[in-house]
Amino acid sequence: MPSSDLRIALSKRKPLFLIAAGFAFLAGVIPLAVAADDNTATQAAGVAADTVWVIVTGCLVMFMQAGFAMLEVGFSRMKNVGTVVAKVVTNLSVSSIAYWAVGFGFAFGAGGIFAVIGGSGFFPTFSPGSQMNLPAIAGSTAPAAAKWFFEFVFCAVSLAIVWGTMIERTKFIVYILFGVPFAALIYPLISHQLFGGGFLMATLGSQDFAGSTVVHLTGATAGLAGLLLLGPRIGKYEKGRSNAIPGHNMPLAQLGVLILWFGWFGFNPGSTLNATNLHFADIVVVTNLAAAAGAVAALATIYFITKTMDVGMIGNGAIAALVAITAPSGYVEPWAAIVIGAVAGVIVVVGVLVLDKVLDDPVGALPAHGLAGIWGTLSCGLFTVPALAKFNGVGQGGFFYTGSLHQLGAQAIAVTASFLTVFVLSYSLFWIIKKTVGLRVSAREEMEGLDISEHGMWGYPESFMPVPGGVYRQADTPTVNPLRSPEPVGSPARSEGSAA
Amino acid sequence: MKMVMAIIRHERLQEVQDVLDECGVSGVTVTEVKGCGAQRGYTEKYRGASVHISLIPRLKVEAVMQAEIVKTVVDKLAEAARTGDHGEVGDGKIFVIDVEDAVRIRTGEHGPATVKHAERAMWGH
Fold first, then answer.
1. A148-173 b/e (C-beta count within 10 Å ≥ 16 → b)
2. Which of A18, A22, A27, A257 could be a cystine partner for A315, CB 3.0 to 4.6 Å?
């Protein structure tokens, strides 16, 4: 029978058939399984790439502290340099703890209060790869700890900017008394508005890619508030004249500029919080172009005005341009970066020359971080490429692409609101500090220099000790000279002696 | 004994020292000083603000010698400290001062012998 033949034939071939079917099944399934594995591996690699990128750029931004330290040291006199580095290290430290405790939660935590400030994620704990509920930066796959670190170093930069206006005469304790609330509340407020999904960013669509307003204008505004209450250094203004008080070391100041420029390759490109979409590479280019244009424009401007190629101004130009390109760095094309940077370079030179007549700002922080920060934030309203606004999901194209002033308006509101908020809060805080512990050292201490009067040691001892290379007796060593009292000045023995 | 005190430009120091060696002057003391002459300094620019630098850096060269060689030393020193052939404003000044006594600390001996070093002149510098 044909049918039984067929059955026999099939049964005879059964092993073969099964093997064939088995191969067919595996051929179908193995690729699927491999593909699934591939997907997981690709995702893991992506997460790792993003995480490494966020941490590495965070470290670059942390290194900007060294840039601020050298910039301020260079623009200070020799008697006030130790206090600058002590201040930078102390501020970095106190702001670390304050930002971990509550700052990060106020800036990025979910459950915000009326889109004014974040409301969760205080005292965060982390475990390998753990995430937190951070709605505004949920797009990045990096774990919460990486995001915390990156956002913290931004806060530390903002705090570092505050003091450039106030060096050479501020009491050391003020750095701590202002630094803690600044890192815990003032900076996070503005950060929440423009980075953390607050009203300005989410509802109004104000663009600030890496913080021209959030970091730089905030720092400079607090610096302005402090400066107004603090007053100028002794000898700066006499008989209506503004005297120059030259800093002691231009090479260090310009080393500071170059370190900041280097750190900015973390600041702007890292603000993608994302390595896998490759947007960061474009941002590196626009950041560098803007800085270059700023330095050249500042050089040309100062030469045009004074016929000298002022060393400090060239550096100020680069910094101002970097500040200005910070907000638009994720939104603009290279040609626009050059325009934005060059305008900032002109603004900073004119700004320093004009502000110096009335405000004693030794490093030029107000023009470089304040005016350039305002310009940079506004420039988004002119130069933002519509496609990049869409890519970043904030706001829309700028005037030169859309012909609409809508985005410029949103930028202007962001600048005004941030300035007013920070100014009022900082001024109040500095006012309270002034009325309680005081902002300023005594005139005598200022004249002697803060290194010796506040810290009991010099930044450059061999420049101040009577004889470099000599030996020094302990202060309590008895002296044999009858004309010189062994007692410290003002002690009872001394006053009795002089009365007799 | 006389002391020759010369205020000179930094860049002329080597020539001035050569002259002192050539004349057999025994010792020399060089100090970095700041001061001004008739020009009263110059004006600089710092961050756009003009700054008047009234005191400018110079070197003070002091050497004590026996009275008889002073005239030669001073003439040669003036020539050595001069900028170019005709000199420039700011080249400095030379003062000659009487010295009452001198003591060599090592031996305690007094008087002109302590600054005598005439053999040097014969070495043919």
1. bbbbbbbbbbbbbbbbbbbbbbbbbe
2. A257
Chain B contact set for A244 (CB, 8 A): 46-47, 49-51
CB A378 within 8 A of CB A412: yes
Interface contact flag, A313 B48, Cβ < 8 Å: yes
Structure confidence at residue A351 as a pLDDT band (50, 70, 90): very high
Q: What is the CATH number of the domain that holds B9?
A: 3.30.70.120
Cβ pair B48:A352 closer than 8 A:
yes
Is a pLDDT exceeding 50 seen at residue A491?
no
Question: Residue A493 — very low, low, confident or very high, per pLDDT cuts 50/70/90?
Answer: very low
Cβ-based contacts under 8 A for chains A and B? 30
Q: How many domains does chain B have?
A: 1
Residue A38 lies inside a defined structural domain of this protein:
no
User: Which residues of chain A are within 8 Å of residue B46 when distances are taken between CB atoms?
Assistant: 244, 246, 310
Q: Which residues of A touch B51 (CB under 8 A)?
A: 244, 246
Which of B43, B45, B47 has the highest number of chain A CBs within 10 A, making it the mutation to test binding with A?
B47
Q: What is the CATH number of the domain that holds A322?
A: 1.10.3430.10
Q: What is the pLDDT of residues B102-111, one digit of tens each?
A: 999 999 999 9
Q: What is the DSSP string of A182-212?
A: IIIIIHHHHHHHHTSS-HHHHTS----SS-I
Please tell me the least confidently modeled range out of A46-55, A343-352, B35-44, B72-81: B35-44
Inter-chain touch A305–B48, beta carbons under 8 Å: yes
Q: What is the residue whose two structure tokens read 């005709």?
A: B86
Tell me if B77 sits within 8 A of B20, measured CB to CB: yes
Residue numbers of the domain that contains A183: 63-235+256-448
Is B48 within 8 Å of A243 when comparing Cβ atoms? no
Domain total in chain A: 1
pLDDT at residue A218 in the model:
97
Contacts of B120 (CB under 8 A, 6+ apart): B21, B24, B25, B26
Q: Which residue of A has its CA nearest to B45?
A: A308
CA of A352 vs chain B CAs: smallest distance (Å): 8
| Element housing A460 (H / E) | none
Residues of A in contact with B49 (CB under 8 A): 242-244, 356
Q: What is the pLDDT of residue A490?
A: 45
**Interface contact flag, A306 B46, Cβ < 8 Å:** no
Can you give the pLDDT at residue A463? 82
- ipTM of the complex model: 0.72
Nearest residue of A to residue B49 by CA position? A244
Residue A357 lies in a domain: yes
User: First vs last Cα of chain B: how many Å apart?
Assistant: 23
